[in-house]
Amino acid sequence: MMTRLSNFCDQLLEAGWLAALVIAPLYFNIYSSRVFEPDKASLLRSLALAMIAAWIVRRIEAGFLRAPLGATLRAWTRENPLLLPTLAILLAYLLATIFSVAPNVSFWGSYQRLQGTYSTFSYIVIFLIAASSLRTRAQLYRAINTAIITSFPIAFYGLLQHYEIDPLPWGGDVTVRIAANMGNSIFVAAYLIMTVPLALARWLETLARVTRESSARVVVIAFTTLALIALSALWFFNFMYGVLFVFALFALAISAALIAQRDLRDALVIATYTLILATQVIAIFFSQSRGPLLGLFGGVFVFVVLYALARRARRVALGMIGLAAIGFIFLAMFNLPNSPFAALKSVPYVGRLGQIFDVEPGGTGRVRELIWEGALQLVLPHAPLWSPTTGDDALNPVRPLIGYGPETMYVAFNPFYPPELGRTEARNASPDRAHNETFDALVTTGLFGFAAYILLFVSIFYFGLKWLGLIATPGERNAFIALWLAGGFLSALIFGAARGWNYIGVALPAGMILGFFVFLVGDAIHALPRETGEGWGGGRALWLTALIAALIAHFIEIHFGIAIVATRTYFWFYAALLVVIGMNRLEQPAPVAPAPAKIAPPESVEDARAIARRRKRRPAARPVERARAENELSPAPVLAWTMLASLVLVTLAYEFVVNQTGLPSAFAALERALLYDKANNFSLGVLLLFVLTWIVMGIIGLNEELPRVGVSRDSWFITLALYLIISLTVWVWFVLLQLRPLTQVGDLTNTYIQLLAQYYLALGLLVGALAFALAAATRAQPSAGFAPASLIVAPFLAIALGVMIYATNFAGVQADIYYKAGNNYDAVGQWERSIDAYQRALQLQPVQDFYALFLGRSYLEAGRATGEPKLRAADLEASERMLLTALRMNPLNTDHSANLARLFRLTATMTDNATERATRLEKSSRYYADAIKLSPNTAHLRNEWALTDLLMGDRAKMREQLDISFKLDARFAQTYLYSGEYYRESGDMTRAADEYLNALALDPAVLSDPSGAPLPDPFEVLVRPELAPRAISAYSAALEKNPRQLSARLALVELYKRTGQPELARRELERAVQAAPNDPNAHLSLVNHLSQAGQIDSAVTAMTRLLELYPPTSPESPRLQEFLKQLQNLQRAIQLAKNAPNDANAQRAVAAIWKARGQPQFAIPVYDAIAHLAPNDYDALKNLALLNAQTNQFDAAERALARAATLAPDNEKAMWQNVQAALNSLKQKQFAPALKSAQAALALAGDADKPALQAFVAYLQDQVAAKK
Description:
Layout: H1 4-26, H2 37-62, H3 69-79, H4 83-98, H5 103-108, H6 117-133, H7 137-162, H8 185-192, H9 196-211, H10 217-237, H11 239-260, H12 264-287, H13 290-310, H14 314-334, H15 364-379, E1 386-387, E2 391-392, H16 399-402, H17 409-412, H18 437-468, H19 474-499, H20 504-526, H21 539-557, H22 565-582, H23 608-617, H24 635-656, H25 666-675, H26 685-705, H27 713-742, H28 749-776, H29 788-827, H30 831-844, H31 849-865, H32 869-889, H33 894-908, H34 914-934, H35 939-951, H36 955-968, H37 973-985, H38 989-1002, H39 1016-1022, H40 1028-1041, H41 1046-1058, H42 1062-1075, H43 1080-1092, H44 1096-1108, H45 1117-1139, H46 1144-1156, H47 1160-1173, H48 1178-1190, H49 1194-1207, H50 1210-1227, H51 1231-1244, H52 1250-1267
Antiparallel strand pairs: 1-2
Helix pairs in contact: 1-2, 1-6, 1-7, 1-22, 1-24, 1-28, 2-6, 2-29, 4-6, 4-18, 6-22, 7-12, 7-24, 7-26, 8-12, 9-12, 9-21, 10-11, 10-12, 11-12, 12-26, 13-14, 13-20, 13-21, 15-18, 18-21, 18-22, 19-20, 21-22, 24-26, 24-27, 24-28, 25-27, 27-28, 28-29, 29-30, 30-31, 31-32, 32-33, 33-34, ...
């Protein structure tokens, strides 16, 4: 018996999977640090928890089954033939998680991905619930439409990125290869290839339906196809032309429908699907991702061949096979080393398809090859992994069977890390994925998990072909399985022998897919498919074909990339749809009545005896259930779609309606978000994103949800108004609630958390509203409210659901927002505030070692920054405590041992106590030994350990570590740098210079600090007169290879300065600006050089150009504007002095500015000119004496002093006496007495004179120290 509560729970399940289809690909969070994958996973897991709660309540309402467990499982298996492979996946994950090398990480997921067992089970929950609960064609079409429509704003946003009208300032380049809502070009393409087959099926289905009885069928199909090609071409070449064509296409569709007196809805829907399909394809093209493109080609091939065979269009299938064969031959020849199509490899977009097997050093192909080499060693028998806390891995013998645990590759991989990988990837980063699903499965879940994964895919494709009628006999089944397995085995064997066994991860699935294709070709050549048993006009075969094509595309792609939240969600949901359609679970709709009427429910709905008993209890005139006529218009379906559209629009608003420039008005911020790009240029991009998404959803939703007959014009307008008003109202309210806190002044960290909570709340309310609307649209009306047991269970589940969502999902994202705030405070050196932020993050996620690591780092930096010994000791102790906590949380993470080693090495330099220093260095050496044991192939750790050895005075051990590092990676520039330090400390400057220049040849930036300035110790060696010419030649050669290398350019500038070649220094800085015209650092370096060289006119011009690179609202702008003002003041003073050369006051103004700027070399000539104009000008003579002493021109200082002393006021005579005494002692090389007199003069000097005397004192102190 259906109750109101069970009906609502049924619809809540559907609302859950629809929301998952939207959220998984569309959502991202710019306010957190991770932005994409973990934030998506957190929301998806929350939806899965809600669906579990709704399912439990529904089961209580329906009554639990009392059949034996075995019978129940057999029934479930018959209903869902993918259940056994799914259970195998579940068991493999459970086993791998229980015995994981990092159980917390395996269950909850890693910080970077959050794709642990919890997330995997969430995908499977959606699959199981959808497979058992999706029962009507309306539900199917609603899900398909949701998947298709969600892809549109994602693909369209990719176009905005490509055409540089993206409103969001991403860190990397997203114009050459778009990233859209996924944050990665491969990810967005991997997702879109799973939606293209569905959009293509909808496009073909709509065209077939509209033209079925049309005399102009060929014309309509041809025109629509041309429109698809034209729009794709326009999207490719020009964004605005594409936009104009879209609106022209809709206008033409409306006009054609009116002229031909055809249904306007059909014309609009065809135009809409044309728009979606073109946008999807071009977005995939703009991603330039090879794996997804191969997946798309495979998916389209399967789509055409399967659908042609299912529709008995054998010639079409054979034609497609012929085209595919030609394409395969071309692709193979295109990838040959000496390909006849080699010229195409340099063509944008197309060329990357000729680099599929490219393994050139530094390329992504070589990176994958190296990762696969390490992964192969990891899954084969090997010495056990070692942990600093537990020792050797006791389960090492069975690791090939059970794996290391989900999400643990980044720690398990370390012992097998290929040193070459460090040249293209960050050296302290370990791969967390193999970029290949086969290796990922083998590493994380072992052979058990891999077998389950292969079983799942082979089951999906076997049953898909069976339901299409292509496999009908045991012989055909055996042939398919044999081709699948033999293809994989032979391919792995051939590739393994030819290119190396690390290629089996790609070769095995490639051979399986080839076996699948061979089976299709054989079927096309030798036989026709059997009856598919469909009863809905070709729709069943079409959607089975589309789903299989999408899953084939996904299967191909994941063996070149990484499965993400969106593709995992869609994979499992598509598997559910395949089961529902293939098993003929969809209830057939009642036939349309000729006129509105009340229809009694068929007696088959319930047991006939139950109906008879109820008829005895109450009059027959009051039936228990009532069904609406098919053409009776209810607003409920439209309201449901409106809630779904509102969810899409609200999600887009959360992402794009932001206040990046800190505007104080919500309406101004809204205008800025909708009408301006990240460079503050006027742009309609985001506004078009919202408008076109809104229009597309309205057209497809209203077309699908409204009956096709019996709907009056008034009803049409009412439903249209319902969609417009409700969706816009929801959007406006959400936007205003979001912008209000964003316009407040101050630290917005808590505001970002509030916005996250608002979005979670909005998602919950919209999902609930969607469920209510779907329940209201249910034809069968429930006869009761709820079961009594639900009064107890439902409130408890609601509370538990809220707690679990907060504790296991929301809190993780909240913690990451605090972490991002901590990073921002780190960047400006506000260590106390960053400590507070990291503490909050760690409180929310107490098992997240990543936050403990950064908290320890902040304590260390705070200790280094403070001058108070007690505070420093407390901070350093806290740093050690946090780093040890991180080590205990995740002992296999090499970073934790290495960070403790760095901590003790650094703090050893902060103490003067020899015993304590030795103790800390010993601890540092011990932790480096642990880190090396965890990651034996990492050269940078060997180099750091060598520095510890140097501080310990053990140069022999340092040399030993450096020699091992050279053996690991002879092309690591840092090793040559440290080797140079070894020789410098040994006093061998020539060999030190050799090593420094070797390092420079490998990496021009290695001899510079993070700010770009040359490292002082190596630079002082290279600037020596006998070595400087070699250094200049080496830097010049490095810059010929990479003209944009700013740090090398700055070092060359310093070399020219130190060797007395200022014009050559200026030339290099001008070249730096030419090579990197948009690099602010290059411009700023030129400004500083010109300013220091006294070339003020040129400095003002360069400064003006620099300011053009910064928007007026940037934080740097006020400081730079002030510097420009100072330069302009000096420029005006110089011009006034030139115009009045005999005006002592005009000259004095210039000299005073030079002196205040700390440039005495320019002030001295001006003061000298004043002294000639006014021989008794005491101020000029005083400054001449002091500034000449400051610049070590002691004879000139003494001459000026002799004249100044006679004019000095009484209160300054004592100062001059001490200066004179200092100069006298200096003449006699008596530096100590000279220093004493200079210090006495400094004590008597006025504030304006102190800088010059301080420089004089510093010079004398150096002389005294040198003499000692």
